[in-house]
Amino acid sequence: MGETIDWGQVARFLDDLYTASDGLERMFPGRKFTLDGHLVGSIGEVLAAYMFDLELNPASTLGHDATARDSRNVEIKLTQGSSVAIRHEPEHLIVLHRPKNAQVRVVYNGPGSVVWSAAGTMQKNGQRSISIARLSGLDKEVFERDRLPQQRMPPV
Fold first, then answer.
1. Which domain holds residue 72?
2. How many angstroms separate the CA atoms of 105 and 64, rounded?
3. What is the CATH number of the domain that holds 111?
4. Does the first or last residue of the chain, that is N or C, have fewer Cβ atoms within 10 Å of its Cβ?
5. Number of domains, the chain
6. pTM to 2 decimals?
7. Residues 94 and 106: beta-carbon distance below 8 Å
8. Does residue 98 form part of some domain?
9. Is residue 112 in some structural domain?
């Protein structure tokens, strides 16, 4: 993936989404128009697939979003906020962060068991939350052999 993708256009589309979200929040004070759910999830998946040379599973596959070249199952998360939520213990986890109008960065790339153990208690919606700050700290403890090799820099 990536050779035929115009990543500059992708970045412009993402900026347009952020602009629309900000505009709606200004028009309707007190209401949040956060980019989340399938939209952000799918953006994260295609970005991680490009960056780490992953094979994406079909959309909405239960369990993991992609498979690495070494056959590891990979869960992918992208957020513009301060935390992510996970529903199960992934084999491998990649967490990306893209603040508004900024470059994507890898927050965590390592075994999912580490994050699952460190995440908060199960919420009523079946998710466990963990902060970007905590993930960043956990990432510093991941051995290089336990990371997926990053093949390309973030394109947006």
1. 7-146
2. 21
3. 3.40.1350
4. N
5. 1
6. 0.89
7. yes
8. yes
9. yes
Cα(103)–Cα(118) distance, integer angstroms? 26
| Most distant pair of Cα atoms in the chain: their distance | 49
Tell me which of 51 and 17 has the higher pLDDT. 51
Scanning the structure block, which residue is given the tokens 């470059």?
103
- pLDDT of 3: 65
Q: Identify the pLDDT of residue 59.
A: 81
Q: Please give the Cα distance from 144 to 29 (Å, whole number).
A: 46
Residue 109, beta-bridge partner list:
94
Per residue in 85-142, pLDDT tens?
999 999 999 999 988 778 899 999 999 999 999 998 999 988 999 999 999 999 999 9
* Token pair of 110 as six digits: 């390592």
Q: Give a yes or no: residue 139 inside a domain.
A: yes
Structural domain includes residue 35:
yes
